[in-house]
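User: Okay, second chain of the day. Same drill as before: sequence in, C-alpha cells out.
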Amino acid sequence: MFRQIYPEINIKEDKDVKSNFKVVKKEYLSDGRVRELIGGSRYSTSVGGTLTGFHGDILIVDDPLNPTQSASEVELRNANRWCEQTLSTRKTNKAITPTVYIMQRLHQDDPSGHILAKQKANIRHICLPGEIRNYANKVNPPSLKKFYKKDLLDVNRLPWSVLKDMEADLGQYGYAGQVGQDPTPPGGGMFKVDKFAYASTMPGKNHITKTVRYWDKAGTKDGDGAYTAGIKMNKLDNGRWIIDDVRRGRWASHERESIIRQTAEVDGYNTIVWVEQEPGSGGKESAEGTIRNLAGFKVYAEKPTGDKAARADPFSVQVNNGNVILLTAQWNKDFIEELRFFPQSTHKDQVDAASGAFNKLTSKKIARRIT
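Assistant: Same drill. C-alpha cells below.
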C-alpha cells in the first residue's frame, strides 16, 4: 500500500537497517535525469542504549520499562535517568520537539509517574484504563468516558471475563497498574482480610493435593527484631487453599533450627519444606545449614526476586476472592493483622512466608536446590 501511494520514495541504500534508515525521493527532471532528494530518517534504540550523534524532530518512547524491571528500584532509577538526562538532550529543537511516551503503568515512580509528578505546564496526559467500573477517575481527559461500553474500553478484546483472568494472572497490583493505569489498588491495602474463610477442622487427606511449609528466617532474639515465620499451606482439590499452622517467634539461630526440625517432624514427610535464602554469602550458608538440619525431608531453598509486594500479589488475589481458608487457631489474630496493613505493616515475615508457600503450591516449575 505504501509503495502504491508513494512510488517515488525509497530507502537510502547505505542506511537501510530496520533500526536506522533514511528515505530518499526520486525527482524526475525535464532533461530525463533522475535526482535523489534525501528525506527523513528513523533511528531506534533501547533504554540505556546509545544516542550519541543522533537528534530527532519527534521522540517516541514505547514501554521504557517492563513488569519485571518495575520490581527493581535500580531498573526504575536507570529508566528514569535515561529518559530525563539522555533522551531529553537529543531533540533537534529543544523548544518545539515533542516527546511521546506510550506505556502502561507499572509503578508509582515509573517513567510516566516520574514525569507527571513534575506537574510541568507543557505535559499533555491521555489515560485510558481498561475498565471504568473501578477506575473511572483515571480517564484523562474525562470526556473520553463517552467511548466506553458497559464500562469497558474494548468489549471485544477485553470483556469482563478476560479482565477477571488477567487479575488472577497479574495479581492485584499488576492489574491495577496495567489495566487500571493506577499502580495502587483501590482501597489501599493489598489484602481484604474480611474475605478469609474459616474452618474448625481440616479437610480429609483425600482432598489435599499438595502441602508446603515455607520459612522466612531471622536470626535474632531481640525484642523489636524481625521474626522467623513458617507457614504451612495446603492446596485443595476444589481450587482453594487452607493454612493450618503458623510457627512464629524471635529465636536465636540454634533455637530456630531446632524448632524448624521439630516442626518438620510433626508435619511429616509429605510436607515439602522451602527456605527463603537471603542475599549474600551469609544467607546462602544459613539456607544450606537448614537443608543439612532437615536431612531426610524434602527441603529446598530459593533466592526471592522482586520486592515483597510483588511476591505477595498472586496470594492477595486469592485471599480477596475468598479462596483462602484459615484453620481456626490462636495464631489467626496476629496473622490477619499483619496482612491487614501490608505493605505498610511493621512486620512482613508472615506475608513473606505465606506468599512463598502459595507461589510454591501454584508454580509449575520443578523444584531444585539453590547452589
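The mean pLDDT is 89.

User: Thanks, on to the next one.
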